[in-house]
């Protein structure tokens, strides 16, 4: 373990001492960890959901990591007084689709630093022209998504695996997010294929900046995404990736990008419906209620076991 990782783990242990468990709930239990130190990043915060039965047994659980953790469970803590209801979605997938229970680790977005924490570093590095200018106009500081991914796949995962009864393997570790969090989830599964075997990239914000600045269906940006996936996607090797978008509000910009990305998946040998899924939800807008409505379906497909 490097000194950097040791420092980060000590920060997580300090947060653990301050962790606050909510009252036990019939449908699982939430635990909050505030003021979590992570090297090279703004202060982080976690909300962790333990499924029903966790406190009464000894079984080990697969884990889903989700970005924008403040918008997952409690409307009172959310940005817009609406949430994904990720715990209820997991319970629905367990009941209706036979998905085994998972621990959910929600990582809160760091306020105004959210964009630079979720913008894939390798995409930003490769961008030029209008797309790069549009990204740089929004960043407000250096891109820190590489440091975020290092923390997610390193100290954070090590701490979660040590603190909770988890199954630690790649195929038992999923990562899910929406909008810029969707981009971050794709970044994670492509850059850390040994760590994440499942990724949910929901309403991924393919313009990667203000679409009015980039322009609709920017050819340079579409080619950049195609090259980015071509260089990193590789063969499925048992991994599974979900992609989707609606057609309302911001999601209305995503279709031309998604079509090229879907074609790249197929060209790399990914079988639609088996290794990857890509869906369009007519009328669905770019907001938490829309993502909550389809999250049970996402979890049901993404987390099912082969066979």
Residue fraction in strands: 15-25%
User: Could you give the order of the helices and strands?
Assistant: HEEEEHEHHHHEHEHHEHEH
Tally of helical segments:
11
Strand order, biggest sheet? 1-2-3-5-4-6-7-8-9
Distance between the termini: 37 Å
Mean pLDDT: 92
Write down the overall geometry.
Answer: globular
Category by helix and strand content: alpha/beta
Q: What share of residues is helical?
A: 40-55%
Radius of gyration: 18 Å
> What oligomeric assembly is this protein in?
single chain
> What about the largest sheet?
9 strands, mixed
Question: What low-confidence regions span 5 or more consecutive residues with pLDDT below 50?
Answer: 5-10, 13-18
Number of strands: 9
Write up this protein:
- By secondary structure, the chain is of the alpha/beta class.
- The chain contains 11 helices and 9 strands.
- It has a 9-stranded mixed sheet with strand order 1-2-3-5-4-6-7-8-9, with helices on both faces.
- Helix 9 (219-232) packs parallel to helix 10 (255-267).
- The termini are far apart.
């Amino acid at each position: 373990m490097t000194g950097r990782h040791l420092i980060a783990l000590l920060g997580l242990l300090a947060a653990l001492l301050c962790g606050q468990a909510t009252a036990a709930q019939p449908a699982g239990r939430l635990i909050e960890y505030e003021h979590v130190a992570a090297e090279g990043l703004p202060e982080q915060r976690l909300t962790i959901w333990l499924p029903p039965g966790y406190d009464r047994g000894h079984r080990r659980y697969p884990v889903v990591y989700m970005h924008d953790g403040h918008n997952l469970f409690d409307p009172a803590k959310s940005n817009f007084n609406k949430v994904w209801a990720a715990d209820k979605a997991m319970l629905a997938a367990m009941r209706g689709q036979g998905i085994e229970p998972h621990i959910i680790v929600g990582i809160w977005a760091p306020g105004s630093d959210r964009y630079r924490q979720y913008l894939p570093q390798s995409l930003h590095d490769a961008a030029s022209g209008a797309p790069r200018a549009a990204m740089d106009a929004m960043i407000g500081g250096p891109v820190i998504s590489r440091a975020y991914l290092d923390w997610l796949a390193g100290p954070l995962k090590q701490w979660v695996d040590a603190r909770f009864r988890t199954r630690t393997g790649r195929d038992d570790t999923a990562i899910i997010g929406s909008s810029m969090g969707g981009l971050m989830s794709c970044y994670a599964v492509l850059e850390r294929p040994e760590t994440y075997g499942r990724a949910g990239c929901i309403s991924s914000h393919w313009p990667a900046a203000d679409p009015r600045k980039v322009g609709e269906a920017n050819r340079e940006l579409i080619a950049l995404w195609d090259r980015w996936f071509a260089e990193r996607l590789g063969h499925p090797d048992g991994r599974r990736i979900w992609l989707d978008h609606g057609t309302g509000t911001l999601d209305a910009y995503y279709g031309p990008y998604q079509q090229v990305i879907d074609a790249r998946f197929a060209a790399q040998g990914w079988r639609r419906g088996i290794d990857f899924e890509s869906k369009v939800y007519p009328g669905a807008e770019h907001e938490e209620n829309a993502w909550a409505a389809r999250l049970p379906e996402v979890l049901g497909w993404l987390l099912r076991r082969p066979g």
